Backbone:
């Protein structure tokens, strides 16, 4: 099994990396870009098990450690 | 007084902190990150650096080290803990201090002296700083932009937990004086009980005139004076 976690900065937190990438895209001529948010992606290889149990555990880890809820949001997928 | 200075893999301001405390005539010893006790120290410095390579997020891994469990207990019992730069990030990640530190707004690593206004003079970290004194202390960080949501910021203000703010030479909290985009020019905060504090600037790098400023001593001397008072009260 695999856990895939996408971590993004909260909207209320100014994201200078995202803003810089957005400016660069505009500078390169890509029009219509209305916002860029730079986050991170974590993939965890897991032993097979009950999907819901695994989700619960990884969700806890994502909340306590993999992301910082003060500044980040995350999405979790178990495959 | 005896200070303990934590040592994580890739701490790099630990020796400076030891020097600053010893320079003031007090004892200071390292505490290795695998220790499960902080021993007989009366105050703890969580030093600057790049603990555990700053992997995942600055300070994120250090919070689970054995020594940090002992530091949490020490803090819960009212012990004085000060986190400097990466140490501030570690204390925020550990939940010992509110808020978080994110990438500097201008994306630049800033390494320069700044001026700090003391916003609350009634804490163990600030009581010895004269009211009209601006502290001249260096910063050196890429991720020192302090962030807290509106609710947390309100609590910080209500409980007087904002200890230091970036200011200009007139003591004004201007954008130009703010090196990293921190909300409300916040350079350092404390917990609600004012026994744990963190700041991005490095007081240990401003501990003698040879280093261009000795203003950092005012912070350590405040802690030492308060500890001396506590010891006297205990004896009485």
Residues:
């Amino acid at each position: 099994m695999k856990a895939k976690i996408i971590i993004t900065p909260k909207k209320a937190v100014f994201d200078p990396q995202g803003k810089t990438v957005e400016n660069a895209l505009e500078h390169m001529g890509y029009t219509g870009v209305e916002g860029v948010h730079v986050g991170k992606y974590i993939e965890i290889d897991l032993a097979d098990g009950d999907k819901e149990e695994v989700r619960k555990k990884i969700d806890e880890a994502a909340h306590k450690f993999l992301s910082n809820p003060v500044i980040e949001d995350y999405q979790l997928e178990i495959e | 007084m005896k200070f303990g200075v934590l040592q994580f893999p890739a701490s790099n301001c630990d020796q400076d902190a030891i020097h600053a405390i010893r320079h003031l005539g007090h004892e200071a010893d390292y505490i290795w990150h695998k220790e499960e006790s902080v021993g007989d120290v009366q105050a703890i410095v969580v030093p600057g650096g790049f603990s555990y390579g700053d992997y995942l997020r600055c300070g994120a891994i250090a919070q689970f080290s054995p020594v940090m469990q002992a530091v949490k207990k020490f803090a819960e019992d009212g012990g004085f803990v000060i986190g400097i730069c990466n140490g501030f990030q570690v204390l925020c990640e550990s939940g010992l201090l509110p808020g978080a530190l994110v990438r500097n707004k201008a994306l630049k690593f800033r390494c320069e002296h700044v001026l700090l206004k003391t916003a609350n003079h009634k804490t163990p970290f600030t009581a010895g700083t004269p009211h009209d004194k601006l502290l001249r202390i260096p910063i050196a960080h890429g991720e020192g932009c302090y962030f807290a949501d509106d609710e947390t910021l309100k609590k910080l203000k209500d409980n007087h937990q904002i200890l230091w703010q970036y200011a200009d030479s007139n003591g004004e909290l201007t954008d130009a004086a703010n090196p990293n985009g921190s909300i409300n020019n916040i350079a350092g905060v404390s917990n609600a009980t004012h026994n744990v504090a963190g700041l991005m600037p490095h007081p240990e790098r401003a501990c003698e005139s040879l280093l261009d400023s000795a203003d950092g001593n005012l912070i350590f001397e405040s802690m030492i004076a308060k500890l001396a008072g506590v010891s006297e009260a205990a004896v009485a």
User: Anything to note?
Assistant: The first strand of chain A starts at residue 2 and ends at 9. The two ends of chain A are 6 Å apart (CA to CA). Chain A has one domain: 2-78.
